[in-house]
Amino acid sequence: MKNILAEITAHKAVEVAERQKVRPAQELESTSMFQRTPLSLRSYLKQPGRNGIIAEFKRQSPSKGVINATATVQEVTTAYARHGASGLSVLTDQNYFGGSMDDLQTARAANVIPILRKDFVIGEYQILEAKAIGADVILLIAECLTQAEVKHLAEFAHNLGLEVLLEVHTADQLDKITPHTHLVGINNRDLKTFQVDIYRSMELLKQIPAEYSKVAESGMDDPATIVTLRNAGFDGFLIGEHFMKAENPGAAFESFTQKLASL
């Protein structure tokens, strides 16, 4: 099976270079959103009355194709927030996930909880973009960045007031965790094959230092799984596809959280 991640990051380099020509970094830094103080996802994950779920808005994916072509960002994200989500994740990759920076800006205008810019960050420019469109957290994927790149980008984001979610998949990527990584996400989905193994999180969790917030990602379609992972020590749970594949993702989220509250 082809390595989808390598293909995406190669495309991303070309795409970002093009965007940088159209909108220079200085222009991003002069936006009103750039002056905004970002919210802390770490603290929202622990906030009473919120359920630790980082609920995602995602239209499509390379592995599943179109997931939901009709849902609107405003309707879905406000329902997520209203029913106790600790944070939102918004896909901004256009080519592979059908997302856009407009989607994140729409979510930002409608919500007052932390928002993760879900994209394939390979350089400083995308972090400036994230700040300029109102994101609070950026994603760095250990699989497609060197240790030095993670260290540099995490520090760059931290200095802008943004939190960093570092996504790892295997034990040998744990050495990429840096002092400026605020949250560590463990992806149950293999980013090369897109197969899901829920027990991966449990294995890696024990090896992550206590000072980092831990987030489980992918393949959690049962509230009982959340309880198991929470009891194991996870603070956050990034879930998107399970809600987005429903005709009404907001209602699916509400139903899921009601079941979770009863467990």
Q: Report low-confidence residues grouped into runs of 5 or more.
A: none
Estimate what percentage of residues fall within beta strands: 15-25%
- Secondary-structure-based class equals alpha/beta
Question: What percentage of residues falls in helices of 4 or more residues?
Answer: 40-55%
Largest sheet: 8 strands, parallel, barrel
Distance between the termini: 39 Å
Helix and strand element order: HHHEEEHEHEHEHEEHEHEHH
Tally of DSSP helical segments: 11
Number of strands: 10
Spatial ordering of strands, largest sheet? 1-4-5-6-7-8-9-10
Q: What is the averaged pLDDT score?
A: 94
Specify Rg, calculated over alpha carbons. 17 Å
Question: What is the 3D shape?
Answer: globular
Which features characterize this protein?
263 residues, alpha/beta, 8-stranded parallel beta barrel, 11 helices
Please specify the SSE layout and strand pairing.
Elements: H1 4-22, H2 25-29, H3 41-45, E1 53-57, E2 60-61, E3 65-66, H4 73-82, E4 87-91, H5 101-110, E5 115-118, H6 124-132, E6 137-141, H7 147-159, E7 163-168, E8 183-187, H8 199-205, E9 213-217, H9 223-232, E10 236-239, H10 241-244, H11 249-262
Parallel strand pairs: 1-4, 1-10, 4-5, 5-6, 6-7, 7-8, 8-9, 9-10
Antiparallel strand pairs: 2-3
Helix pairs in contact: 4-5, 4-11, 9-11
